[in-house]
Structure formats: C-alpha cells, structure tokens
Amino acid sequence: MDLEQEKKLVEKAKNDIAAFGEIYDRYYPRIFGYVLRRTANIETAKDVTSEVFFKALKNIGRFHWHDVSLSSWLYRIATHEIANSFRNSKRRQLSVERVSDFISMSNPSVETVLLEAEAELKRHEEYITLCENISKLSIKYQEVITLRFFENKQIKEIGQILGKREGTVKSLLHRGLKKLRGLMEYATF
Amino acid sequence: MKEEELLKKLESVELPEIEIESHRNWLRTALLTTGYTEKRWGVIVYDSVKSRIKAAIAIITRGFTSQQPVWKVAIISICVVVLVASGTWILLNREWASAETLVKLSRIEIEALVSDLTPGKTLYMREQTYQRYGPAAPRIMEGSWYLPESRFGEQWLQVDENGNFYCFQSAVTDSDGNVWQESMTVDGEQLIRSINTGEETWSRWRPYPVTQYMNSALSLPEKLLDRGWELVGDGEWDGRETTVFEKHSYWVNHGTNLEQGYVIPWVADLDAVEIIFRFEIVSDNPLFYSEEMWVANATGERTLVEQHRRINIEVLDEPPPLELCPPPYVIRTFTLNDADEVLDLESLLPARFKRIGAASEGLSREDLGLDSIWSDVVMYRSDVTDELVYAYLTIMPEPADEQARTEVIEGIKAGAPGDFHQSAFGTDAVESDVADFVRNPNGGGYGGAYSDDDGWEYGNVRVDRVFVAIYRISQFQEKEPLSQLAEVIWRRLNKFDQ
C-alpha cells in the first residue's frame, strides 16, 4: 500500500470501523513486535499493544498527516504506552484476556500458547542479555536505541516518533550507545 | 567493548519474532465492536468516568457486604498489607505453602503419567467441552476465530518413539449439531472429516510432542500463581478434590468504552464491573481441569460466561482404535498442475452446468492475456442462456512485490469484459481486496466475492501464495453464492503446501 492509499484508508477509518480493521491488520504485527522487543515480556506486550490500538481508534479522528505518518504515529503511541507500562508496572492491573480458547490436543489453550511463546522468547539468549542491559538505561536512551537497531528506523523517523529534532536523536543515540557500551563491558554473551 | 563490536552486536542480534494469534484475533474483535466511531469524544469520557466510579464503589462495597468469604478474606488481606506487614507475610506464606504442596503432588502425578506413556500405550480423554452460558452466549460473534460451542467425545493419542502424538481421533459436535471427526497422522498433519457429509479437509498443525503437552500441564498451579492468579480455596468436582484459582480484572465496561477498558461483545449486556477467570484443577491431576470465565455486576452477582472442561484423562494399556486413524499422508507442494483438481467445480455447481473448453469460447489463458504464472481457465456453462462460471489461479512469486501485485490485478482485469472493469473492478471493494492480498502474501486463507448490477460476480481465494479468481455471469435469480465455491476451493488448497 503506498502513501496515497494509506491516506485514503486513514480518512475512511475516521468514520468506518472496517477501514480501521485494515489498519489494524497491517500494523498489529509491527506494533506487537516492537513492544515485545522493548519489554521482553509477552504479557506486557499483549497489554500494551491492546492499549495502543484502543488509543489509536479513539484518536484516529484527530490524526493529521502533516505531522507524522500513520506508522510513526502508532509507534509514538506505543512508545508512550511502553513508558507508562514501565512506570506503572508495579501497580498495573492485569488486562482482560480471553483465557478460554478452543482446547484440543492440536490446538492448545491460551495458557499453553503463552507458555510456548515465553519459551521461544527465552531461546533468544543474546537478545535477552542485550535487552537486560538496555533496560538499565534511561527510557529516553532505550527508545532511540531500540527504534534504531531493533526496528531499523532512520533518524528522521525516530525524530517523528519521539517528537524530537534529528540532532537531538543523534545526540541521544550517541550518548545512549556510550552508556550501553559501559554496561556491556560486564555482560557476558 | 569497542564501539564497533557493540554496533555489530546490535545489528546482528537475532530478534524474537513471536505472534500470539489468539490475542491478535481477540483484540481485533474487541476493537471492531467498540462503537467508538459512533460516539462523540465527550460522551466517551463521561461514560468512562462514570463507569470507573461505579466499578470502584462496587468493589469496595462488595468487599464488606458479600456473603462470600473469599471476598472478605481478600479485603481483609488488603487491609493487612497496608497496616500490618508481618501479617501479610504470614498470610501469603500460608497460601504459598498450600500451592507448593499442590505443585509437588501434580508433578508426581504427571511425571507418573508421562513415564507410563511408552510406545504402544494410549492417552485417553473421555470428554472435552467448550460451552457458553446465559445471556452472553448470543453475543458471541460468528467469525473464523470464534469456534462454535463444541463437545469432544472420546479421544485417543498414541505416542511414537520420538515422543510425538501420532494418532488422534475424536468426534466433535458443534452448536449446529454437525459432527466432525478430527485425526492426526504420522506426520502430525490433521484431517478434519465431516461425519454428516463425508467432506474432508486437511490442515497443517505442527506435530505436538507429548512432552510439550505434559510440560504445559506440569506445575500448572505454580505457573498460574506466577501469572498473578490467586489461590482462593478448595473445591470438589466429580467426587475429586480440586483447587480453585482466580484472576480478577476490572478492565471491563458497560457496553461503551472505558478509556482504559475493553468492550467485550459477550459481556456487554451483563452490566459487568469485573471479569473473573477461574481455573479449577483436580488436585492430584492437573490434566483434568475446568477453565471458566465469569462476570460480576455491581451487586456482586456472578454469571458464568464460558467454560472449558477436560475430563478424565488417563493412560490405557491398549492402543487406540487404529481403524479410526487416517493413513500417513504427505503433503505435496502445490503446483500449477494441481489447478485442475482444485478448480474442479463439477460437483459443486447445479446439474445445469457442464464443463466446456475455455479455448473453444475464446477464453483460453492466451486469449485472456495471462502469462505462464497462471493456470489454464476452467469453465462451466449452464443450459440457461449466458450463464457461465470460470476460474483460474496463480502461484505468486516470492513475497508479493509491486510487480506481482500489478500482474495479479492485470490478470483479474483480463478475465472480465470491458464493462466489468468499469462497473465492478473499479470499486474500492475489489481494489482494496487485491491490495489486502498483496499486503499479506504469507498470511492465511482469505476469500471474498463481489458482484455488480449486471449479473457479474467476482470471487477470490488466497492461501499463502496461491491466488484464485472465480467469475460468474448470470441473470439467473436463484443462484448459489459464489462465496460457497470459494470456501470449498480454499479447503482444497489447504491440502497442499504452498
């Protein structure tokens, strides 16, 4: 889908829930992936991703293209929600989840799926170690480093997502990497 | 560590690519049934505030007035947390001690089951049910992710030398009374056979190792506690002692949206202020459990909404009834040579249709301008004047790029006469549908049908990289929906690897 088509879709989504469904289908994997890579926690990723799309739905009527692209806008909401999640992690209420799901031997329950997903996550040992070190940095550094390296975003787009100037992003990235390097001196891979 | 080393590590680290399909589907439904776009912002905020206050009052009030001792304990526990830290420690330790005992017991039982599951023996399950209750039941939307209420009859699983289940047979009765049989082959593929019609569908589940299944149940109580579930007491079920866990969620609203809450279609009319997830596990065998969802209203009244039950799992000495297991089946990769089999519509169309050569009608692949990535055109003409059905398919090249998208769109255009381009193809519905296919080239199945006022219909089916286009022209009023043909084709395609 090119930019023009996406613009049309966004305009349509302001009044048409089915069009919002198309946006959701397109961006859910990216946003869930981003949140998961930031938080390294399946449950948190589910909760935060839900929040992102509910907020997107609520605010899509106020979304304007001249500010940021749709992708950057969703990443921006996700970034805010991740920060909120870190801040509220100790008092955060568990979100609604559909525990019951179709259970059969070949189609395991939601709990089982989650357990498997967690096992898959733990398999990425190098990433987990890296993530643990990144999580020790200030949130502002975490944001630029993960957007740059985990999400492959360019400096300009990171600026759009975070609402910061490109120079500021470069500076944050430079300082963040320096701090991370210091932390990694003691990390083992 | 040098800067270059860190950059290299950051750029090359293998990142997790995980998707939770159930969450994706659930969230989609929740979003698309919110009614947000129908409400004004101010109204939503007002509802949100009102609902939150109502929920908070209900929770506090219920804690002190409820006849259920569980709630009193919960509220008292909160007070203890605030006022007497040592008291909290004692209370929590008592609960953990109980859970630990349970974990130990369940581990012993399951380990005994696993060690008993040697080749030749069979895991047997008497029954497994999924039911919805009360006013919530009709609220559950129909959709591919909402499976119907069902009752599994007897199920047998035999374990091979590698620890995989290789024979799985059961009868499933859905809410419409259809009976289905589900089997799994040596290769871990699954056959779903309709008992009513004899129709078969193959699907591709990955093999499910018995150890994985057992491990998911192993220490289940411990895992629930880790996930924030509360141990709320003992119960009894079918004459066996059970342990009950609950997880409470207050992120529920009353038919409209909370700012931080979700509309759940199947609880929307229940004035719910709280959702309670309940796990009741037979104490000496966590493979035998009930998983339930309840909602509570402001007065504390609970309504059961959904229930899953696994009943009576045991290890038998005798093998499963092997005549019920399908033969080993190896899934072939789909090629254009299989197009004729997949597009054979003879048995699906009314008797008035007969297959004809597309070339003789001037509608061969070449006539339509379709290049080598397309199959031949399969065509049926009825004895009713100008009633025609035809279809063809393509296997898309690697992840659909712009060129592939153009080829598909042009191919579809080529299949229809000029006025069809203008009257139907030019609409957003068809255009966006094609775009959707291209956007998700590696996704699951997808089908759709569109028609115009002149008796033309266009349908499509997609399974991974295989894309089928079906057309019908007819002025016949009582025609079967094209989507039915699309669905059958979709099932046939699932027999293949793409």
Relevant terms:
heterodimer, A: 189 residues, mainly alpha, 71% helix, globular, B: 498 residues, alpha+beta, twelve-stranded antiparallel sheet, six-stranded antiparallel sheet, 32% helix, extended
Question: How is this fold's topology laid out?
Answer:
The complex is a heterodimer of chains A (189) and B (498).
Chain A: H1 3-13, H2 17-39, H3 42-59, H4 70-88, H5 110-123, H6 125-134, H7 139-150, H8 155-162, H9 166-184
Chain B: H1 3-12, H2 21-32, H3 41-65, H4 69-83, H5 85-116, E1 122-132, E2 150-152, E3 155-159, E4 165-174, E5 179-184, E6 190-194, E7 200-203, H6 210-217, H7 220-226, E8 230-237, E9 240-249, E10 272-282, E11 289-297, E12 302-316, H8 339-342, E13 353-356, E14 378-382, E15 388-395, H9 402-414, H10 418-425, H11 428-439, E16 446-451, E17 456-463, E18 466-473, H12 482-493
Antiparallel strand pairs in B: 1-2, 1-3, 1-12, 2-4, 3-4, 4-5, 5-6, 6-7, 8-9, 9-10, 10-11, 11-12, 13-14, 14-15, 15-18, 16-17, 17-18
Helix pairs in contact in B: 3-4, 4-5, 5-7, 9-11
The end-to-end distance of chain B, rounded to whole angstroms, is: 45 Å
What's the quaternary structure here?
A: heterodimer
Per DSSP, the total helix count of chain A is 9
Ends distance of chain A: 40 Å
Percentage of residues in DSSP E strands of chain A: under 5%
Radius of gyration of chain A: 18 Å
The number of helical elements of chain B comes to 12
Kindly describe this structure.
The complex is a heterodimer of chains A (189) and B (498). With 189 residues, chain A is mostly helical. Chain A is 71% helix and 0% strand. In chain A, helix 2 packs across helix 4 and helix 4 packs across helix 8. About 11% of the residues of chain A have low confidence. By secondary structure, chain B is of the alpha+beta class. In chain B, strands 1, 2, 3, 4, 5, 6, 7, 8, 9, 10, 11 and 12 form a 12-stranded antiparallel sheet that branches. Chain B has a 6-stranded antiparallel sheet with strand order 13-14-15-18-17-16, with helices on both faces. At the A-B interface, helix 2, helix 3, helix 5, helix 6 and helix 7 of A face helix 1, helix 2, strand 4, helix 6 and helix 7 of B.
